[in-house]
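dumping this here so i dont lose it
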């Protein structure tokens, strides 16, 4: 294989036994470096871990690597465990962090770890997982970090060197193998100069048909069209019913492939798959987190076949999944950042824009941004597209479970760990003091609530350290004997209520008496926890339970079909599956805590009742 300059440089460092961080644009070919590490480990009979930020990407990597490494590949994501002792083990970063803290002995056989999309350390909700994974990384493991272009990559490498006392080589590639050409739809005209995006009194709205016709006329298909809302993706796809992007032969080929895939993934009678067919026949589809995971995979496979010409999708399609196209369209240059809506970060723009231009196929990639000058000034468009990518910043927010695991190992010495963090490395004295104070407040609260006594974890503390993210509430339910008193259905209901996050304006369908009573117990516990956290100055507060899916999970556990239970909730079908799978993960974590054998047996039965048919993530991978 002929490598690019940056690939050769990284591989040379790896061959000399160095840990390496690679920063390069989306689509530049970072995966080839990861494959070299994997193949080198296999040649030496060594083992390697590959971590990815989301389960969908972990699953895709498993499918990709299965072709190359056969039975030497395994996957561990919380709701999937296939060949977990394999020499090449794929896992989510959360699972790795948990292993590092709970069971470091299990990592002895692994000589390398690959952190894909390591700039995710900047993610406000989950970035702390990457930071904790790197802080507590076993000394014998070498690191390959793969990242999008970030300006402070040397600072990031310097931090890792400072805590592990070994050199980390930095490899930077600024150039894309396929250059990008930027266009703008403004006043329903296509322009390639940001200076032509001026606000005028006679504003003409941008029409989708006009843009798609232009892209098609310039031989710009296939096209990924990024939107920042699920309903918007579906609506825009339906707007193209009058188009047909396929020749007669292509139309026959895509319908045949779609039928075969729907047969394989048991989608032949699913209403959502049937509804998608008229779009598929025209070379159009949509893709978002609210869809059935199996249907999303079918759409991905259609896109890689190059028969699908226009796909309307949300941003997760850009995250590591190898789905390049000739053109990328941005419906707008604003998105929801967890708690607020803002103009895109330059780094996020290029994560998505980088899907334009297929290496080895296209000489150039085309990126179209739809601009309403009434809402966005040209200066801000210029900043997003031509500005410097944002630095990666620490999002450290150590969980109660992490603190309990560290206390068990280091006692009060756990506070000496904080100076090893990226947060400490990047911040000023007053910010460091605040972060340390938050950790101290969390430990004090854990002691006050009975998780720690006389320098040791109590049984309650041992339980809480196993359930990351939901520690305080679940530990109170455990200590109060609530879990022991619940039947299988009740355990399923509480598990789903623990993980569920409602959308705005979502409603709870009538609760049964038993579930209303369980909700009242949880609300009372949460109120007490929140009061304690508030008095202690701890933010963010522990998550509340939400019983929106109670009727749906009850119906599912009693054997209802998936289509029947969808009538019991206004939650998207893909989200129902996601939350049921998250509930499975929580139940497995509870089962791994110090509980009675009777409760463990009951949880096993609950897992069997939930983890069937379309919910069974392992089944999807096996059949794929």
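and the seq i came up w/
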């Amino acid at each position: 294989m002929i490598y690019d300059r940056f690939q050769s440089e990284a591989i040379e460092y790896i061959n000399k036994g160095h840990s390496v961080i690679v920063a390069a644009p989306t689509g530049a070919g970072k995966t080839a470096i990861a494959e070299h590490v994997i193949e080198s480990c296999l040649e030496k009979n060594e083992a390697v871990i590959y971590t990815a930020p989301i389960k969908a990407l972990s699953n895709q990597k498993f499918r990709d690597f299965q072709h190359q490494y056969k039975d030497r590949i395994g996957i561990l994501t919380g709701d999937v465990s296939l060949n977990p002792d394999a020499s090449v083990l794929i896992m989510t970063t959360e699972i790795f962090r948990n292993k590092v803290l709970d069971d470091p002995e299990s990592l002895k056989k692994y000589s390398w770890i690959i952190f894909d999309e390591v700039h995710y350390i900047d993610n406000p909700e989950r970035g702390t997982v990457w930071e904790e994974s790197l802080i507590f990384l076993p000394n014998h493991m070498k690191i390959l970090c793969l990242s999008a272009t970030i300006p402070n990559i040397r600072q990031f490498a310097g931090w890792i060197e400072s805590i592990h006392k070994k050199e980390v080589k930095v490899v930077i590639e600024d150039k894309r193998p396929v250059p990008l050409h930027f266009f703008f739809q403004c006043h329903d005209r296509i322009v390639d100069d940001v200076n032509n995006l001026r606000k005028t009194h006679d504003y003409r709205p941008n029409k989708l048909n006009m843009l798609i016709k232009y892209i098609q006329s310039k031989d710009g298909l296939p096209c990924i069209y990024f939107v920042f809302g699920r309903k918007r993706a579906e609506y825009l796809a339906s707007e193209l019913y009058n188009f047909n992007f396929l020749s007669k032969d292509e139309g026959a080929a895509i319908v045949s492939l779609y039928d075969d895939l729907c047969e394989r993934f048991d989608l032949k009678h699913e209403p959502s798959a049937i509804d998608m067919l008229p779009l598929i026949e025209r070379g159009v589809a949509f893709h978002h987190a609210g869809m059935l995971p199996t249907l999303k995979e079918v759409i991905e496979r259609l896109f890689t076949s190059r028969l699908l010409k226009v796909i309307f999708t949300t941003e997760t399609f850009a995250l590591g999944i190898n789905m390049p196209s000739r053109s990328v369209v941005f419906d707008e240059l604003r998105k929801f950042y967890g708690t607020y809506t803002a103009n895109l970060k330059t780094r996020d723009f290029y994560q998505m824009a980088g899907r334009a231009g297929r290496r080895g196929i296209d000489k150039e990639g085309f990126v179209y941004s739809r601009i309403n000058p009434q809402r966005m000034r040209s200066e801000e468009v210029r900043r997003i597209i031509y500005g410097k990518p944002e630095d990666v910043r620490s999002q450290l927010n150590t969980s109660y479970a992490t603190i309990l695991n560290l206390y068990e190992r280091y006692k009060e010495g756990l506070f000496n760990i904080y100076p090893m963090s990226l947060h400490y490395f990047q911040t000023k004295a007053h910010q460091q003091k605040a972060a340390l104070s938050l950790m101290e407040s969390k430990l004090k609260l854990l002691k006050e609530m009975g998780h720690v006594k006389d320098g040791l974890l109590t049984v309650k503390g041992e339980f809480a350290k196993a359930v990351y993210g939901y520690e305080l509430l679940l530990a109170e339910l455990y200590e109060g004997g609530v879990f022991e008193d619940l039947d299988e259905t009740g355990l399923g209901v509480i598990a789903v209520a623990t993980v569920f996050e409602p959308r705005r304006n979502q409603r709870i369908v009538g609760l049964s008496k038993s579930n209303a009573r369980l909700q009242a117990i949880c609300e009372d516990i949460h109120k007490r926890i929140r009061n304690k956290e508030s008095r202690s100055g701890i933010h963010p507060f522990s998550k509340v339970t939400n019983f929106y899916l109670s009727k749906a999970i009850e119906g599912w556990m009693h054997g209802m079909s998936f289509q029947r239970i969808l009538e019991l909730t206004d939650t998207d079908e893909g989200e129902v599956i996601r939350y049921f799978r998250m509930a499975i993960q929580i139940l497995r974590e509870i089962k791994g805590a110090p509980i009675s054998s009777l409760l463990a047996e009951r949880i096993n039965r609950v897992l069997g009742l939930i983890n069937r048919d379309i919910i069974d993530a392992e089944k999807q991978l096996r059949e794929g």
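The two ends are 28 Å apart (CA to CA).
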